[in-house]
Specification:
Number of domains: 2
Largest sheet: 10 strands, antiparallel
InterPro entries: Cell_wall_metabolism_enzyme, Dup_hybrid_motif, LysM, LysM_dom_sf, M23ase_b-sheet_dom
Strand content: 25-35%
Number of strands: 14
Number of helices: 5
Protein name: LysM domain-containing protein
Shape: globular
CATH architecture of the largest domain: Distorted Sandwich
Structural class: alpha+beta
Organism: Salinicola rhizosphaerae
Length: 247
Amino acid sequence: MGEIASQADIPLLRLQRFNPGVDSRRLAVGQRLLLPTTQERAPGGGPYRYQIRRGDTLYSIARYFGTSPTGVVSANAGLDPSDLAIGQLIQVPMGSGGSGSRTASSSAPAASRELPDPGPLPSSASHWRWPLDNYSVARRFGKDANGTLQPMLLATQSPATAKAASAGTVRFANGMRQLGHVVIIHHADNMQSVYAFCGQLLVSEGDSVAEGAPVCQISHADNTNRYHLLFDLRHGGKPVDPARVLR
């Protein structure tokens, strides 16, 4: 992605943030990236400037940037959602539509919808361990009321350590917008596991981890007074219901 940013004369951080559903460390042949135009490249952490493209709808724009249609309308005085024009420049607030709750609609690092179909799950993707020893399922994997696919959210009443669901290599261990500290582990047969809302990280990028190895301490969510772990599984970048893989 750094080479693409350099060739397009776009700051790397800007390109990454303009493609919130793309893992910049694992691009696929044929994968499509959205390049910001000159008018869209405003610096800063405020609302994004976005230029309407062919086929865009208010809902598709909001879903792409992880916000809500209502949030987009609120950020654009006089915007008519039914009359978007190609080339029109609008403001797009980032995140969960200003709800203030990171657990309500945050999504884990996601691969682009343009990724090729990786095929059926490999035989190795079975009987993996759950990432927490004592937990409740606060939200199951699946689509919310708006049709947006949400990863699984686990909760505990007391501090807990998230553990690797299967053996693999840590490819990312750092902070990520809205998700706190995040760990991404790559496993055999093009499988990935994601652990978000981490507090203290217990691994570093490049580490080889065994199944059950400590990954991070999960963090406290003030709005629920519980400890949360956002857990996501991917096959070739495509979301997988953890219930199909975990024992």
